[in-house]
């Protein structure tokens, strides 16, 4: 089984490939770059939209995700706007801005959320699941590993940021890892229903 | 488990309740009538849209469907427009109009398609599956049972229309029956993954 990832981000493709190592699936970056306006109000909307557009244009099964950092003290910000907040600035600057906004914050609780979707345009089968990792926002930008907001997020049960902990821990416990593992556990488990259920075969 | 149906159509609620009789689920009509513009280009889009809007407003799990008659000779018409074609006219008149359009048609193949969706707004879990019943368009409007375009559709393997065959056969083989049975076979089978997988519990 070969599945395209609805993204043009090599980073993300590699991460998903590693996460899904144990499943018998070939993960490939989409052969076409397709523009999808990520203007949904929720991770679910954006995730479904990407899977749906890419799947319909490529004509084969695809996976997509939408992810972000949700900070309680900031009312959920940056949330679905995680990628677009200060879009043209490096993440380092964005993180410094977030730490500035949280200077007075005692409640530093936050979570990373990922909604992963699988869509097969041939059978109109669509499924989306959520993965969450709770944690808190650090007081400093720390660590060079990972990407995005990793260097200011300390996952529950740890003392270091995702930026310090690195890929191995992230592949185990991250929001994206949880979402994609759940997604493919489900798809693997219901393979027979889906096959039997394709009324047009 | 109690689930609301994203519809204000009593007919549909009763049909889904009968179809899902064997599953341990209480099916209820949505307590609120919510306007959702069904302007998608596919059954999947409309089905997901209804489930998503109703689910977010009601705050509990919902099911939705979008269905229609797809006629090959008419390039798939009325398809997603099945409900809106001659919207203010009785189905009888709409069926007569379709038979008129197909007067010269030798190829009378058609299918009923249903995309059923389940959405749980608390966990961002969304799933959509398709049910299809192949058949052909009759030469006359026949039978008083069922609703919509049932009296001009003869399902594969039968000689009478859905309008003549009635509810019992329809509950067995219809597009809606196939879609909803597949949907709940899947949900039942992955209950443990979904429970375990709710990272916020």
Helix/strand layout:
2 copies of one chain form a homodimer.
Chain A (H helix, E strand, L loop, with lengths): L1 E4 L4 H10 L6 E4 L13 H16 L3 E10 L19 H11 L7 E12 L4 E13 L15 E3 L6 H4 L1 H7 L1 H15 L1 H6 L5
Parallel strand pairs in A: 1-2, 1-3
Antiparallel strand pairs in A: 3-4, 4-5, 5-6
Largest interface: A-B, 30 and 31 residues
What multimeric state do the chains show?
homodimer
Number of domains of chain A: 1
Trace the largest sheet of chain A across and list its strands.
2-1-3-4-5-6
Strand count, sense and barrel status of the largest sheet of chain A are: 6 strands, mixed
Care to count the β-strands of chain A? 6
CATH level-3 fold name of chain A: Maf protein
Separation, N- and C-terminal Cα atoms of chain A: 18 Å
GO molecular function (chains A, B): dITP diphosphatase activity; ITP diphosphatase activity; metal ion binding; nucleotide binding; ribonucleoside triphosphate phosphatase activity; XTP diphosphatase activity
Enzyme class (chains A, B): hydrolase
Pfam families (chains A, B): Ham1p_like
Binding site for substrate (chains A, B): 7-12, 67, 147-150, 170, 175-176
